Amino acid sequence: MTSTASEVDQVKSNNRTSFTSVKALTESPQLTSLPPSYTYTTNSDDEIVTDPDEDDPIPVIDYSLLVSGTPDQRAKIIQDLSKACEEWGFFMLINYFVSKSIMEKMVDEVFAFFNLREEEKQEFAGKDVMDPIRYGTSSNVSMDKVLFWRDFLKIVVHPQFHSPDKPPGFREALAEYSRRTWKVGKELLKGISESLGLEANYIEDTMNLDSGLQMIAANLYPPCPQPELAMGIPPHSDHGLLNLLMQNGVSGLQVLHNGKWINVSSTTNCLLVFVSDHLEVVSNGKYKSVMHRAVVSNKATRMSLAIVIAPSMETVVEPAEELLDNQSNPAAYIGMKHRDYMQLQGSNRLNGKSVLDKVKISI
């Protein structure tokens, strides 16, 4: 659907009673500059952006060695996982047994969804953070002081599978990709459990992953007329245990590492894995959820596809008791049910680790 001049004027007037998608906005010939409601001001600290340092490269984890390597190879990978989670909260995953054709099919279907007519997509415009299918724009339009240059589609695919009924091949591609990435996430969590000195199944069992939440979040970042003034999605960490991200070959992801924003190149042969808030809580802060953001460009449309691996909705997430010592390592976080954490997140603006900070214990 092509935006009319009145739609552009609606955004410029900052009237958010109903949203215009960013994609529709960019298709309007009246759009020659960034509407004021999308103007994002960065802090001076946010201006330090660099590429990965050759002396401190982004960690790379070989999944095949974790699940089918020799005992020595697996032990080495578990050590590498520990270092990556502790020092970066982020790593690149290679050789993870999800074929390129499956990933490309998923990317194609996500683009096909975003290319539907606006009225068709609006059928899936959920209003509540707990809705199993939600199409929307920005982050939380009713709360955001500044709108973000992003349209999204979020779908719960486990423990119950949900999917839009259009476009025609979407459901099948989503089911296959969800099934395979769920297995990858669970195997990674076994290695991470061991890297913390816990039993391999500790996180899977205590987080009740048999009924755990798996959610897909597809993000579309169309070309922006003034990208230096806009933000695709602001600095934040994710709820859940892990986030497995793939991209369409257009860069824009940045992660915060040692006080600097690091550009993460988009590659087609790896998944990008983020430590998320609930893994930080379970590890009692040993592994920190990584802050990341998405910047936009005026040249190409970027699409990212995130898979959230999370505890069951009724699980109280708290530090692993086996890691605690009242004297040297007391609990640094209070327990909170996952459902309550998500609702808290949905009722707040996306702002750094503001929700995680609410469960931290001040010492």
Describe this structure in words.
The chain is α+β, with helices and mostly antiparallel strands and 363 residues long. The chain has one domain: Jelly Rolls. The chain is built from 11 helices and 15 strands. Strand 9 (253-257) and strand 10 (260-263) form a beta hairpin. It is globular. The relative contact order is 0.15. GO terms for molecular function: L-ascorbic acid binding; metal ion binding; oxidoreductase activity. It comes from Sphenostylis stenocarpa. This is Fe2OG dioxygenase domain-containing protein. Belongs to the iron/ascorbate-dependent oxidoreductase family.
Short description:
It is built from eleven helices and 15 strands. With 363 residues, it is of the alpha+beta class.
